[in-house]
Amino acid sequence: MKRVLVxxxxxxxxxxxxxxLALLVPVSIQVFARLVPxxxxxxxxxxxxxxxxxxxxxxxxxxxxxxxxxFTVDVLxxxxxxxxxxxxxxxxxxxxxxxxxxxxxxxxxxRFGWDQTSEVADWPLWILFLAWPVAGxxxxxxxxxxxxxxxxxxxxxSPP
Length: 160
Known about the structure:
Layout: H1 2-35, H2 44-67, H3 81-113, H4 125-129, H5 131-148
Helix pairs in contact: 1-2, 2-5, 3-5
Protein backbone atom coordinates (compact mmCIF):
# COMPACT_ATOMS: atom_id res chain seq x y z
CA MET A 1 0.00 0.00 0.00
CA LYS A 2 2.81 2.40 0.86
CA ARG A 3 4.38 1.81 -2.54
CA VAL A 4 1.10 2.81 -4.24
CA LEU A 5 0.93 5.99 -2.14
CA VAL A 6 4.50 6.94 -3.03
CA UNK A 7 3.72 6.29 -6.70
CA UNK A 8 0.54 8.42 -6.51
CA UNK A 9 2.44 11.21 -4.75
CA UNK A 10 5.11 11.25 -7.44
CA UNK A 11 2.52 11.12 -10.20
CA UNK A 12 0.61 14.10 -8.80
CA UNK A 13 3.86 16.06 -8.35
CA UNK A 14 5.01 15.24 -11.89
CA UNK A 15 1.62 16.16 -13.35
CA UNK A 16 1.74 19.48 -11.53
CA UNK A 17 5.22 20.18 -12.87
CA UNK A 18 4.16 19.30 -16.42
CA UNK A 19 1.10 21.53 -16.18
CA UNK A 20 3.23 24.41 -14.91
CA LEU A 21 5.71 23.98 -17.76
CA ALA A 22 2.87 23.74 -20.27
CA LEU A 23 1.30 26.91 -18.83
CA LEU A 24 4.53 28.79 -19.49
CA VAL A 25 4.13 28.27 -23.25
CA PRO A 26 0.87 30.16 -23.93
CA VAL A 27 1.64 32.81 -21.30
CA SER A 28 5.10 33.42 -22.81
CA ILE A 29 3.60 33.67 -26.27
CA GLN A 30 1.07 36.23 -25.00
CA VAL A 31 3.75 38.34 -23.31
CA PHE A 32 6.10 38.15 -26.29
CA ALA A 33 3.36 39.06 -28.76
CA ARG A 34 2.27 42.05 -26.68
CA LEU A 35 5.79 43.42 -26.34
CA VAL A 36 6.88 42.99 -29.95
CA PRO A 37 5.22 45.35 -32.40
CA UNK A 38 3.56 43.95 -35.51
CA UNK A 39 2.96 40.52 -33.96
CA UNK A 40 -0.62 39.56 -33.30
CA UNK A 41 -1.38 37.64 -30.12
CA UNK A 42 -2.75 34.23 -31.06
CA UNK A 43 -6.25 33.98 -29.63
CA UNK A 44 -5.91 30.36 -28.54
CA UNK A 45 -3.27 31.26 -25.96
CA UNK A 46 -5.83 32.86 -23.63
CA UNK A 47 -7.97 29.71 -23.55
CA UNK A 48 -4.99 27.41 -23.28
CA UNK A 49 -3.72 29.37 -20.29
CA UNK A 50 -7.15 29.22 -18.65
CA UNK A 51 -7.53 25.44 -19.17
CA UNK A 52 -4.03 24.77 -17.88
CA UNK A 53 -4.37 27.10 -14.90
CA UNK A 54 -7.59 25.44 -13.73
CA UNK A 55 -6.02 21.99 -13.93
CA UNK A 56 -2.82 23.27 -12.27
CA UNK A 57 -4.78 24.68 -9.32
CA UNK A 58 -6.70 21.43 -8.85
CA UNK A 59 -3.61 19.23 -9.14
CA UNK A 60 -1.72 21.59 -6.85
CA UNK A 61 -4.46 21.26 -4.25
CA UNK A 62 -4.12 17.47 -4.47
CA UNK A 63 -0.40 17.72 -3.95
CA UNK A 64 -0.77 20.05 -0.97
CA UNK A 65 -3.49 17.91 0.62
CA UNK A 66 -1.51 14.71 0.13
CA UNK A 67 1.61 16.20 1.71
CA UNK A 68 -0.26 18.06 4.44
CA UNK A 69 1.00 21.42 3.18
CA UNK A 70 -2.29 23.29 2.99
CA PHE A 71 -2.39 26.42 5.07
CA THR A 72 -3.87 26.29 8.53
CA VAL A 73 -5.25 28.99 10.75
CA ASP A 74 -4.66 28.67 14.48
CA VAL A 75 -7.77 30.05 16.14
CA LEU A 76 -7.93 27.59 19.00
CA UNK A 77 -5.54 27.50 21.92
CA UNK A 78 -3.20 24.55 22.26
CA UNK A 79 -5.42 21.53 22.68
CA UNK A 80 -4.94 18.30 24.52
CA UNK A 81 -4.55 15.04 22.57
CA UNK A 82 -8.22 14.06 22.62
CA UNK A 83 -9.47 17.54 21.62
CA UNK A 84 -6.81 17.74 18.88
CA UNK A 85 -8.00 14.36 17.57
CA UNK A 86 -11.59 15.66 17.44
CA UNK A 87 -10.53 18.81 15.56
CA UNK A 88 -8.39 16.73 13.17
CA UNK A 89 -11.31 14.35 12.52
CA UNK A 90 -13.63 17.30 11.95
CA UNK A 91 -11.18 18.67 9.37
CA UNK A 92 -11.15 15.36 7.53
CA UNK A 93 -14.95 15.27 7.52
CA UNK A 94 -15.06 18.79 6.04
CA UNK A 95 -12.58 17.82 3.29
CA UNK A 96 -14.61 14.67 2.58
CA UNK A 97 -17.78 16.77 2.34
CA UNK A 98 -16.18 19.25 -0.06
CA UNK A 99 -14.75 16.38 -2.10
CA UNK A 100 -18.17 14.72 -2.32
CA UNK A 101 -19.70 18.07 -3.32
CA UNK A 102 -17.11 18.53 -6.07
CA UNK A 103 -17.64 14.98 -7.35
CA UNK A 104 -21.46 15.14 -7.26
CA UNK A 105 -21.86 18.55 -8.87
CA UNK A 106 -18.70 18.18 -10.94
CA UNK A 107 -20.24 15.25 -12.79
CA UNK A 108 -23.23 17.46 -13.61
CA UNK A 109 -20.78 20.17 -14.66
CA UNK A 110 -19.04 17.75 -17.04
CA ARG A 111 -22.40 16.67 -18.48
CA PHE A 112 -23.33 20.32 -18.94
CA GLY A 113 -20.15 20.96 -20.91
CA TRP A 114 -20.15 17.69 -22.83
CA ASP A 115 -21.54 19.17 -26.05
CA GLN A 116 -20.02 22.63 -25.63
CA THR A 117 -16.77 23.97 -26.96
CA SER A 118 -14.64 26.96 -26.08
CA GLU A 119 -15.35 30.14 -27.99
CA VAL A 120 -12.07 30.69 -29.77
CA ALA A 121 -10.10 27.45 -29.91
CA ASP A 122 -13.19 25.23 -30.20
CA TRP A 123 -11.89 22.85 -27.52
CA PRO A 124 -14.36 20.61 -25.67
CA LEU A 125 -15.30 22.22 -22.37
CA TRP A 126 -15.76 18.89 -20.61
CA ILE A 127 -11.95 18.66 -20.50
CA LEU A 128 -11.87 21.81 -18.41
CA PHE A 129 -14.88 20.86 -16.29
CA LEU A 130 -13.49 17.37 -15.57
CA ALA A 131 -10.98 18.96 -13.18
CA TRP A 132 -13.68 19.39 -10.51
CA PRO A 133 -14.86 15.79 -10.06
CA VAL A 134 -11.33 14.43 -10.46
CA ALA A 135 -10.03 16.77 -7.76
CA GLY A 136 -12.98 15.98 -5.50
CA UNK A 137 -12.43 12.24 -5.80
CA UNK A 138 -8.75 12.57 -4.93
CA UNK A 139 -9.51 14.96 -2.05
CA UNK A 140 -11.78 12.29 -0.61
CA UNK A 141 -9.19 9.55 -1.11
CA UNK A 142 -6.31 11.57 0.34
CA UNK A 143 -8.43 12.74 3.27
CA UNK A 144 -9.38 9.16 4.13
CA UNK A 145 -5.76 8.04 3.87
CA UNK A 146 -4.65 10.94 6.07
CA UNK A 147 -7.37 10.18 8.63
CA UNK A 148 -6.19 6.57 8.84
CA UNK A 149 -2.60 7.66 9.44
CA UNK A 150 -1.69 7.96 13.13
CA UNK A 151 -1.67 11.58 14.30
CA UNK A 152 2.05 11.77 15.06
CA UNK A 153 3.29 10.36 11.75
CA UNK A 154 4.57 12.80 9.16
CA UNK A 155 6.48 10.48 6.83
CA UNK A 156 4.00 11.06 4.00
CA UNK A 157 4.50 14.80 4.34
CA SER A 158 8.16 14.70 3.48
CA PRO A 159 9.25 14.07 -0.10
CA PRO A 160 9.61 10.37 -0.88
